[in-house]
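agent> fetching stored inputs for the uridine-diphosphate-N-acetylglucosamine docking request
agent> found them:
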Amino acid sequence: MKIATIVGARPNFIKLAPVSKEIRKRDHKEVIVHTGQHYNYEMDRIFFDQMGIAAPDYHLGIGSGSHGFQTGEMLKKTEEVLQKEVPDAVIVFGDTNSTLAGGLAAAKMHIKCAHIEAGLRSFDKRMPEEINRVLVDHCSDLLLCPTRTAIDNLKREGIVQNVHLTGDVMVDAQKDCERIAESESHILEALGLKPWSYYLATVHRASNTDDPENLRAIALALQDLDDVVFPCHPRAEKYLKKFGLWDDLEKKIRMIKPVGYLDMLLLEKNAKKIVTDSGGVQKEAYLLGIPCITLRDTTEWIETVNDGWNVLVRPGEDIASAIRDFRPRHERQDVFGKGRASAMIVDLVEKLVGSGGS
Ligand code: UD1
Ligand code: UDP
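agent> prediction call returned; pasting tokens
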């Protein structure tokens, strides 16, 4: 069986790692298509190097741009690759523009498309990711859901065929890398950090970074805390500088380049709390048992909030107090599966291809 996996942005690479490993273990032919959406070493190559992902077979080199430009260019070039390779199935991951382009290209060419992380909803259409998720779910042939909530969300939209609860591939990724991170990452020593003595922050959502008032509120709150480590996404760096917030922030807290997955796992695991607007980081905080404060109005990972380990805080609220005061209330549950999602996913893709997709 020939499978094309389509990726382009940091969270796509992390989800690809365990799935690619499983595809190759079974001797299927994998064609990795990298759209080029993310391209800085620390947003891109570092994940291939550290997580043992094979070099992309195709690099489309699209880079940054408006949503229409970026998605359109990716769609054109992905179609060319699929025409040449004629895979039996395409796999797309999550909710980025690369996911949408890959899913659309496959659907228009009648190539079976499997969507990993299907059914997630924030119910906020101002998020570009929400548009991407809904569209990809509606044009995919196989819907691979990480949670029961995701299955229920699809049911409400009338999608009930070929919907499966697989658990979350990010649990697989974490399991594969946790021990390696413990032995290979020296990030705590390098930054002079003691376990549970610091807050870990990540911010990159357009609604936070591109809005000067929201970004200012977040920057002021982070400055108000004692010890913050902030691996800074290039989008956040660009706007912190543009709005004149960078210099003060850099004086007060540890602004560092985005880190690789191994360093990130250790930073997360040893943080006293995590402050984020990332989807994946909310989930990882929950898996690691670290209290999470999410700088958003909504989340697609609602189980983490319902379980009391994640709290949503809007930029208009007193963010610093919300961060300081938050205490998880309950035991965590096993909502994301046990780390066997990739094997189940490849089983299901084999079945889909073998059965002609019924
Ligand atoms: C994208 C995804 C988002 C995901 C995030 C993960 C979409 C619509 N958004 O958002 O869902 O959570 O990736 O990190 O697909 N930039 C660089 N170098 C890079 C990458 C980005 O400088 O390697 C800068 C550029 O100025 C670019 C900006 O970051 O314009 C935004 O990049 P883009 O890929 O468009 O969106 P993200 O905010 O990264
Ligand atoms: N991540 C990382 N280094 C960083 C920040 C995040 O390796 O400096 C990882 C993080 O551990 C998680 C993933 O990137 O696995 C989340 O991706 P991101 O926050 O970019 O996107 P989202 O999940 O919000 O789509």
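agent> quick read of the result: The chain has a mean pLDDT of 97.
agent> awaiting further instructions
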